[in-house]
């Protein structure tokens, strides 16, 4: 029996390797399971578990690299197909803009056209009388035929409008003959037969003779000077031409003063011609200045359409020439906006309704010719922008192609390394063939060409243990060809005898199999959802809703008062773009029920989930050529902006996930919106608006803009929803306010009853510091929805926190004290001589009428008024002398807006209640003063109060006993990321990974004073970096890993520990006593004093890398007797805490006991209890001792890896005690751990400036200089 068992075990050992040559898989026909030959898991040493696990890991990595290689290769192929080297030539041949441009390119010479008003058909008719008068002089032969028409030789130069004096005096040193002016000059003096050519010097001499004529009627006319300028423009002397324009301006302005009908025509022609001259001279800034000054206002009554078009065309040319000349033939990213703006210049003449040509055929011909030139230039500009967009896409594609090819090579190299590792662990080809033959030996039996025997082999290659040697079954062939031939019939016979598998099919299921039933159901619902509103519009509100509104308080003249202003809850800075509202106007306001479209509209019940897979709703680019939105530079920027978390409007996520009437994942909502878009469920504008909302939440402005453009271009739909969203996208991406304001104005035109639009316009006005405009729109919003508490809160905040940009009536007319009886008079200064007149409110009248009152003076009243005043006031009769005055008319106008007092009846329903949006009156408690004139009472605040308004940290603390014991804090911080699961070494391997869940670094980092750094450098100059000097210096990694624990002694702060802790008495007999600090009541704690925004308090129970700070053991033992152990000190602290009340019954535990207890827990290594004690100390410590707890907190955070929190705590301690060595050394160590060695050195040197023999600081300075590999510059110190 034992021999049988032994034989069986031997067979198992021998056949172990026989059956290890395969692993199994489903066959290609999916009908059977078959062995996989050449498996990578057939190892050379199958008994090695380490090799097997490494092989499994390598095979997985090989599979991942193979998938990545296929993905990258597919992307490379796609990008190579998209790469088009002939893209520029193809676009120039096919693009409509490029075809429109024709032969005109972007060369600067093409934009120096001479648009002359002299070419307008009716120009010369204004000067017919002058040309008839000079005809006889024109025909005279000049005395000097070589005389040149230099205008400044006989005339004084004037100033061209719009140019400063220094530019008017500039000279143009460029010669540029202008062939256009050869034709323009021929048009001058049309009724005079020209015997000589206008190009000959004799013609110039004739003009010069007229310029030098003795009669002013001949020489002092702008027409003559413009002709002389045309002569010089023809010959190319721009300096002389400009001189003639300047002399012509003088006479044209004189003609304007005289009322000459041709004067304005002359001025316009001169300015247009001068502008084209500056364009010729490459001075487009001067041309723009002249034209914008002269043609700023469209005046169709004084300027002909031809003249106005010439000015617009010259201005467009100048705008293009103003672009950087070095890039005139190609644009870059930063110039797209400039080109787009110039396109608007060229487009403006076509969009003006006033340019309707008269019936004159000459007008029509000239305007059509000008239109043709402008169209070509507009086409050239638009063509260049189109080329840039396409070439930018090509460049981006090539950049990605290069990076992906480099990535392919990198991944391929990694794959080859992994393949070598896999082959290195696999069995050799010889042994693999032996194992296959052994398998066939066991399966098919003996074969004469196969020889098998047992041999000895090592089971583990690196072991020499005797038990490591095992016997294996080794097979080989004597004749391979004969063996294969003999095995063919045996293998076929085995295959025929295999039982049938009943056509069983095997397949690999998809990860997310599509629900075909749902697809069919969705297909049947296509186009069936209602396209019209299902419910009535929400706005305007009906009369029944308005009947519940008790008070339109925002329209009252006496709102808000001091009580109203105390109700402000929000503390956000409404003038800061960071707090600009993120708004989505629900289509339900228009009558469309969104939840129906997202559920039943796509074939789902309200409780059902959308079948997988879930994908995002993408929108395609839309052609907007010619649309008014295509000229928005902010929209162009948004379309070319990549997705980024900084553009994510996360506050809208709560709206997005509730669109289907229950909370669901945002990606499921995205798929529902996609199903609407793909199957035409509901109105197209509605689904694209919902898609835009999703992309706004995700921070993808490009896709959001595409969806909104499509929604806006959808005909017969409410566009205000999309316009409001687009305005917010542009504001988020660009920060500009002009274009969002335009879009919101368009949205108001689409639906003026939507209150959210007015609210956004108000908040946008606040970003521009336009308080009056904001007040107006906030009130308009409440006029449409009085139940919106957010808008009411904003209005109250603006009204209470500051002042309108117009003066308040109560500030202009302050109340004064006239006597002990009359303390609320209002005084008006009616004139320089008459002085001030004062009035009081008539208490007997219900209208709030004001009556005259004399303050601190002697006066009498007539018989009628005397008895009225005697009845009203108990004045001494000796005071009434003189006469009274009637109430001034304007007094009754402003009387409804003056402060209302308890003794006065308020005027109800003032006539101007709807118009006093800018008047803000706030009741205040004022003490009456002796009257000293209005100057003594009027102290206006600056209008720009909001420019200095910031989020501040404020403390309102009681100043005396008996006052209310409370305070108010206002702070702002960016919270740290919350870990997705409890921290564990299973997924956090390194201390540096803790920074992911740390607070953000503050904008202003702590730094020592320059004096301290200089002193430290003088005490310990930077060591020279040489091999000999650095050989004995410790490595930086060793120093940073073994951090020095720091502790600020409480005795250094002047505190006597013996007052709180019994240091000399017997140790309590109860064992295991520990100082557990009391918890702080959150209702009484200050989150700012306690630094609650730091994550250390929330994560202190999960500090993986925090270790006991044994270096502080001596500091802890020094608190008791010399022979006390740590446990004894803990017991003493426990007893002291109990004696101190443990914070119970309203008692406040001493901060000193909390700090000392934290020292014990630091030595023990319990971070959670140490941080709890420090939290107690921070809440109760006086200001001058807070640094003790802050340094300890910084040490714990430093050890735990929360370096940002450590720096914040240590920096706060530095601000309290700037000359404490422990603080400087602690901050230096934190900076060194962060890798900021420059700042670390600064604090190490400041440490030495405070304690010159502090060796740990010197040791770390040497290590940084020797081992950091960086250079440091202290020359600026």
Kindly summarize this structure in a few lines:
The chain has 1277 residues and is mainly α. It is built from 50 helices and 8 strands. The longest helix is centred in the N-terminal third of the chain and has 65 residues, at 361-425.
How would you characterize this protein structure?
This protein is mainly alpha-helical and 1277 residues long. The chain folds into 6 domains: 46-115 and 304-426; 121-281, no CATH class; 429-491, no CATH class; 543-801, Serine Threonine Protein Phosphatase 5, Tetratricopeptide repeat, CATH 1.25.40; 809-854, no CATH class; 991-1063 and 1078-1122 and 1149-1268, Tetratricopeptide repeat domain (Serine Threonine Protein Phosphatase 5, Tetratricopeptide repeat, Alpha Horseshoe). Helix content is 47%, strand content 4%. The protein contains 50 helices and 8 strands. The strands form 3 sheets. Strands 5-6-7-8 form a 4-stranded antiparallel beta sheet, with no helix packed on it. Strands 1-2 form a two-stranded antiparallel sheet. A hairpin with a 6-residue loop joins β1 and β2 (33-36). The longest helix is centred in the N-terminal third of the chain and has 65 residues, at 361-425. The model is unreliable at 1-22, 350-356, 803-811, 856-884 and 895-972 (pLDDT under 50). Residues 1-20 form the signal peptide. One of its GO terms (biological process) is actin filament polymerization. This is Tetratricopeptide repeat protein. InterPro entries: TPR-like_helical_dom_sf, TPR_rpt, TTC17. TPR repeats lie at residues 1221-1254.
């Amino acid at each position: 029996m034992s021999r049988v068992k032994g034989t069986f075990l031997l067979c198992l050992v021998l056949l172990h390797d026989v059956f290890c040559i395969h692993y199994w898989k489903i066959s290609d026909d999916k009908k059977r399971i078959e062995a996989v030959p050449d498996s990578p898991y057939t190892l050379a040493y199958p008994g090695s578990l380490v090799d097997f696990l490494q092989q499994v890991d390598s095979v997985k990595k090989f599979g991942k690299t193979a998938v990545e290689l296929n993905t990258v290769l597919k992307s490379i192929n796609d990008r190579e197909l998209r790469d088009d080297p002939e893209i520029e030539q193809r676009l120039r041949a096919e693009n409509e803009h490029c075809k429109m441009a024709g032969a005109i390119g972007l060369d600067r010479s093409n934009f120096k056209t001479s648009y002359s008003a002299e070419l307008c058909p009716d120009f010369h008719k204004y000067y017919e009388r002058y040309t008839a008068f000079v005809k006889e002089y024109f025909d005279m032969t000049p005395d000097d035929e070589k005389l040149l028409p230099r205008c400044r030789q006989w005339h004084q130069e004037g100033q061209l409008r719009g140019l400063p004096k220094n530019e008017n005096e500039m000279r143009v040193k460029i010669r540029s003959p202008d062939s256009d002016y050869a034709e323009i000059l021929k048009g001058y003096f049309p009724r005079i037969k020209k015997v000589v050519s206008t190009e000959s010097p004799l013609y110039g001499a004739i003009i010069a003779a007229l310029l030098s004529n003795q009669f002013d009627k001949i020489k002092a006319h702008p027409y003559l000077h413009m002709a002389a300028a045309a002569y010089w423009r023809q010959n190319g002397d721009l300096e002389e031409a400009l001189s003639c324009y300047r002399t012509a301006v003088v006479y044209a302005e004189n003609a304007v003063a005289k009322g000459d009908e041709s004067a304005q025509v002359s001025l316009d022609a001169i300015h247009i011609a001068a502008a084209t001259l500056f364009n010729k001279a490459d001075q487009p800034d001067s041309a723009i200045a002249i034209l914008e000054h002269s043609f700023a206002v469209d005046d169709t009554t004084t300027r002909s359409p031809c003249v106005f078009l010439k000015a617009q065309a010259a201005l467009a040319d100048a705008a293009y020439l103003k672009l950087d000349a070095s890039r005139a033939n190609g644009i870059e990213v930063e110039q797209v906006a400039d080109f787009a703006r110039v396109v608007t210049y060229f487009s403006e003449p076509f969009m003006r309704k006033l340019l309707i040509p008269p019936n004159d055929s000459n007008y029509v011909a000239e305007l059509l010719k000008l239109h043709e030139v402008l169209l070509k230039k507009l086409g050239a500009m638009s063509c260049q922008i189109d080329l840039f967009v396409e070439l930018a896409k090509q460049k981006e594609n090539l950049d990605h192609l290069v990076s992906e090819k480099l990535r392919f090579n990198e991944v391929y190299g990694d794959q080859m390394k992994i393949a070598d590792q896999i082959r290195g662990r696999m069995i050799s080809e010889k042994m693999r063939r032996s194992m296959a033959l052994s398998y066939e030996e066991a399966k098919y039996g003996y074969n004469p060409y196969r020889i098998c025997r047992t041999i000895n082999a090592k089971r583990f290659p690196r072991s020499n243990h005797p038990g490591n040697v095992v016997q294996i079954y080794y097979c080989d062939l004597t004749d391979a060809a004969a063996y294969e031939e003999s095995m063919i019939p045996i293998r076929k016979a085995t295959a025929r005898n295999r039982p049938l598998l009943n056509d069983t099919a095997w397949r690999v299921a998809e990860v997310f199999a599509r629900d075909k039933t749902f697809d069919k159901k969705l297909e049947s619902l296509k186009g069936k959802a209602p396209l019209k509103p299902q419910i009535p519009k929400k706005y305007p509100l009906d009369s029944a809703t308005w009947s519940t509104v008790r008070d339109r308080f925002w329209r009252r003249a006496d709102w808000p008062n001091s009580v109203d202003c105390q109700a402000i809850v929000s503390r956000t800075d409404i003038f800061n773009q960071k707090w600009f509202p993120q708004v989505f106007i629900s289509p339900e306001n228009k009558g469309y029920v969104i939840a129906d479209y997202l559920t039943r509209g796509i074939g789902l019940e309200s409780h059902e989930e959308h079948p997988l897979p879930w994908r995002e709703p993408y929108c395609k680019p839309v052609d907007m050529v010619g649309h008014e939105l295509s000229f928005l530079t902010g929209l162009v920027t948004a379309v070319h902006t990549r997705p980024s978390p900084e553009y994510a409007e996360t506050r809208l996520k709560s709206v997005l996930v509730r669109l289907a009437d229950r909370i669901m994942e945002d990606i499921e909502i995205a798929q529902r919106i996609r199903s609407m878009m793909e199957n035409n469920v509901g109105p197209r504008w509605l689904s694209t608006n919902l898609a835009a909302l999703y992309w706004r939440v995700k921070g993808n402005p490009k896709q959001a803009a595409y969806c909104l453009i499509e929604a806006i271009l959808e005909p017969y739909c409410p566009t205000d929803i999309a316009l409001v969203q687009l305005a917010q996208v542009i504001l988020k991406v660009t920060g500009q306010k002009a274009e969002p304001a335009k879009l919101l104005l368009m949205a108001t035109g689409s639906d003026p009853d939507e209150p959210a639009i007015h609210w956004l316009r108000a908040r946008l006005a606040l970003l521009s510091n336009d308080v009056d405009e904001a007040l107006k729109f906030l009130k308009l919003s409440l006029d449409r929805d009085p139940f919106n508490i957010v808008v009411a809160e904003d209005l109250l905040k603006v009204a209470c926190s500051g002042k309108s940009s117009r003066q308040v009536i109560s500030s202009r007319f302050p109340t004064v004290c006239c006597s002990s009886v009359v303390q609320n008079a209002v005084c008006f200064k009616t004139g320089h001589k008459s002085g001030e007149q004062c009035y009081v409110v008539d208490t007997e009248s219900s209208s709030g009428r004001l009556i005259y009152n004399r303050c601190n003076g002697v006066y009498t009243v007539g018989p009628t008024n005397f008895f009225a005043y005697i009845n009203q006031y108990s004045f001494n009769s000796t005071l009434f002398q003189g006469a009274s005055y009637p109430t001034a008319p304007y007094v009754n106008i402003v009387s409804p807006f003056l402060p209302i007092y308890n003794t006065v009846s308020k005027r109800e329903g003032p006539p101007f209640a709807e118009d006093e949006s800018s008047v803000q009156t706030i009741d205040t408690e004022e003490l009456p003063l002796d009257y000293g004139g209005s100057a003594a009472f009027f102290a206006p605040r600056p209008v720009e109060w909001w420019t200095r308004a910031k989020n501040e940290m404020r403390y309102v603390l009681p100043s005396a006993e008996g006052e209310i014991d409370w305070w108010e804090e206002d702070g702002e911080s960016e919270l740290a990321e919350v870990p997705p699961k409890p921290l564990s070494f299973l997924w956090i391997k390194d201390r540096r990974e803790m920074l992911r869940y740390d607070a953000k670094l503050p904008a202003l980092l702590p730094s020592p004073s320059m004096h301290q750094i200089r002193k430290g450098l003088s005490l310990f100059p930077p060591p020279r970096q040489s091999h000999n000097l650095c050989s004995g210096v410790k490595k930086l990694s060793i120093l940073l890993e073994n951090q020095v624990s720091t502790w600020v002694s409480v005795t250094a702060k002047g505190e006597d520990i013996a007052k709180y802790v019994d240091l000399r008495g017997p140790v309590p007999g109860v064992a295991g006593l520990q100082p557990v600090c009391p918890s702080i009541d959150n209702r009484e704690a200050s989150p700012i004093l306690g630094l609650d925004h730091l994550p250390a308090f929330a994560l202190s129970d999960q500090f993986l890398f925090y270790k006991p700070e044994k270096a502080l053991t001596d500091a802890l033992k020094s608190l008791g007797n010399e022979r006390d152990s740590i446990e004894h000190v803990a017991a003493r602290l426990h007893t002291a805490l109990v004696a101190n009340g443990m914070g119970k019954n309203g008692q406040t535990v001493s901060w000193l006991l909390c700090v000392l207890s934290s020292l014990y827990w630091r030595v023990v290594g319990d971070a959670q209890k140490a941080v709890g004690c420090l939290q107690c100390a921070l809440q109760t410590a006086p200001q001058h001792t807070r640094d003790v707890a802050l340094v300890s907190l910084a040490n714990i955070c430093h050890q735990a890896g929360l370096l940002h929190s450590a720096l914040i705590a240590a920096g706060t301690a530095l601000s309290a005690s700037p000359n404490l060595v422990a603080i400087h050394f602690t901050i230096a160590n934190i900076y060194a751990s962060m890798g900021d060695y420059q700042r670390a050195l600064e604090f190490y040197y400041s440490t030495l400036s405070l304690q010159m023999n502090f060796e740990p600081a010197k040791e770390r300075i040497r290590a940084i200089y020797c081992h950091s590999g960086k250079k440091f510059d202290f020359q600026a110190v």
